[in-house]
Amino acid sequence: MTADRIHTLTQRKAHMDAPAPSWQRLYADETFSWIWPPAYEPHSNPPELELILSLLKAQEGARFLDLACGLGWLTIPLALRGFQVTGYDLSDAMLAGARESAEQADAQLEWIRGDMRSLPENWTETYDFVILTLSEFGCFQDESDNQRVLAEVARVLKSGGRFLLDIVVNRDELILKGDRHDCLDGGEFFISDKGSLDILSGIYTRVFRWDQQGQRHETTWQIRAYTPPEVKRMLNQAGFRASAAYRNYAGDSLTRDSAGMVFLAEK
């Protein structure tokens, strides 16, 4: 077999192993709003806000970039607390909802639609803090794109700036606990949620099934699940010189059975 043929087969296998861009479908269509991140609750601060600000040691007036901000569940409270905030997301549907909530709350902030793999060129060393919360880090098919996200974050941070990366899955925990079956509340219907990890590729797949108005529906959600050492290595490669890992926003110790991971990195 020639070297070119081996290279072609390797590329094809890598593509087959890579997760489908399910986020593009699920977060662009309000049909799937039951899996969307939480919306901003008027006249209230999410309890996570104070914990995140404590971890980051953020001072009032600092500049924040909220990547994949969704419906603005943290973006808007940050602005109301006196921070200079930019909400950044690729979903038109989510940004529309976030803008409406911000207007109702009289919150002054900037909303930008874009791909976090390629942040605006003029943002270099602009932000004191970048947050990526409830994130599906690992959602891109090409692993180099996931690394590129971290490189872009490092570029737009000022020297000494901090990055909070909240990842919703931990491959160690998925291996420990095995396949799972849950039930989600879709409002007028319930959704069967079955999750399984492919050990060789590291891809975690959730299959959702539900009945609505007499019709059976099914869709999938996929992400490449990383281990804590893998994420730390990727952060270092992106140019972050210090990082810590926690189980949650409260700063509890990260363990193998932690369902998610919160990383704090400094440029």
Short characterization:
InterPro entries: Methyltransf_25, SAM-dependent_MTases_sf. This protein is 31% helix and 30% strand. It is of the alpha/beta class.
What is the CATH first-level class name? Alpha Beta
- Would you identify the regions where 5 or more consecutive residues have pLDDT less than 50? 1-20
- The CATH superfamily turns out to be Vaccinia Virus protein VP39
Q: At CATH's second level, what is the architecture?
A: 3-Layer(aba) Sandwich
First and last CA, distance: 45 Å
Helix fraction bin:
25-40%
Number of helices: 8
Share of β-strand residues: 25-35%
Shape by Cα distribution: globular
Helix/sheet category = alpha/beta
Q: In order across it, which strands form the biggest sheet? A: 3-2-1-4-5-11-10
Helices and strands, in order, run as: HHHEHEHEEHEHEEEEHEE
- Overall mean confidence score, pLDDT: 87
Taken together, the total number of domains comes to 1
| Biggest beta-sheet profile | 7 strands, mixed
Radius of gyration over all CA atoms, rounded: 19 Å
Pfam families: Methyltransf_25 (PF13649)
Keywords: Methyltransferase, Transferase
Protein name: Class I SAM-dependent methyltransferase
Organism: Caldilineaceae bacterium SB0664_bin_27
